[in-house]
Design a protein that fits this description.
Layout lengths: L3 H4 L6 E9 L5 E8 L4 E5 L6 H16 L7 H10 L7 H22 L3 H4 L8 E7 L4 H13 L4 E4 L29 E3 L2 H19 L4 E5 L6 H11 L6 E3 L9 H8 L4 E3 L10 H5 L5 E2 L8 H14 L3 E2 L9 H13 L6 E2 L5 H6 L5 E3 L2 E3 L12 H5 L10 E3 L5 E2 L2
Parallel strand pairs: 4-5, 4-12, 5-7, 6-15, 7-8, 8-9, 9-10, 10-11
Antiparallel strand pairs: 1-2, 2-3, 4-14, 13-14, 15-16
Bound molecules: D-mannonic acid (CS2) and magnesium ion.
Length: 413
Amino acid sequence: MPTPLSTASSRDRIAQARVVVTSPTRNFVTLVVTTEDGTVGIGDATLNGRELAVAAYLDEHLVPLLVGRDAGRIEDTWQYLYRGAYWRGGPVGMSALAAVDTALWDIKAKRADLPLHQLLGGRSRDKVRVYGHATGETIEETVADVGRLIDLGYTAVRAQTAVPGGTGTYGVSRPGEIYDPAHGSLPEETVWDTRSYLTHVPRLFEALRDTYGFEIALLHDVHHRLTPIEAARLGASLEPYDLFWIEDPTPAEDQTAFRLIRQHTRTPIATGEVLSSVHSVQTLITERLVDYVRTTVTHAGGLTHLRRIFDLAHLYGVRSGSHGATDLSPVCLGAAVHLDTAIPNFGIQEYMAHSALTDSVFPHSYRFADGYLHVGEDPGHGVHLDEEKAAEHPYSPAYLPVARLADGSVHDW
Ligand code: CS2
Ligand code: MG
């Protein structure tokens, strides 16, 4: 039987794969794969707060299997690393696999001298609609911040506001900083008050509709903090404000919880940013329990597997709404914009602009204009890594916060 090694001409083989960990504003893990003919492809493997686990998985367990393989056999490499591991899936393994997959698609597109979306079937749309983030300590501050995004051209905005009685509310940035919840060598501990939240959030959206009318699409992230019946109540109380979606109303891994939410509200639902496999969204999609699936390139096994998820979703009228927080590197966003451009059932793409420093370490050809991301026409996914600059910003430990209730017990953050 021919093996991948014996069928590849020597120039098609992977000569080297290296992991680069860098922290230009925040930590990123990047896999750099080089073929014998000198083509370089890169993939994002960043898992917020657990970065070095993925770096070690790549360094110790995947890189040794890659060297000498045919770089063109993307599907075979995916199956070999996924099924061959015996221990399948999980966020660490799937992020590592995603980086390999993304780098190999980058290489294939560069060697074909085509932008990646051409290999995924070509354009289904000219540009990719995105939503931005508005935050505030008070309803007034969030209303003003939504206005700032509208002025920047956004047609869709996610709105979060601090909740009276809580601390360090999810989604609210530190003064003068880009929103990034990961900080410090120990997790920050915040206090969560569900009752206060459930009465406060409808007031925010009432104020937003009073100020800006109904044309702007408004989104809200619940961040897995409610029980199914609480989520059902929130969805129903937000119906007058016509949200584009509520996101992660309950912990995403409990797929059947969404049945109960669905019975009680017509507010559209999105979930999936913490999920990494088609199997973890299968019930959500096939029972049409959600409207948008938020899995993304980096945490869901790369373009190969994410495409599989979105194809399943397409059969059931579910659309994509990929996670795009700044803890996913520009490499993830660049690859995602190609997939968003190509698939028939694209819904929306989350977009939080990276810092200028992050962008200088990862120069890229995608660009934001008038509320949309425009995919570049450079060969590959169009995102590069400046290794010299990356080396100036070494890894710096940072953890996501942990939420507790007033009685001190741990809650979902
Ligand atoms: C979030 C993220 O973007 C989102 O919707 O839920 O900000 C999330 O908290 C981080 O990506 C965690 O790493
Ligand atoms: Mg979210």
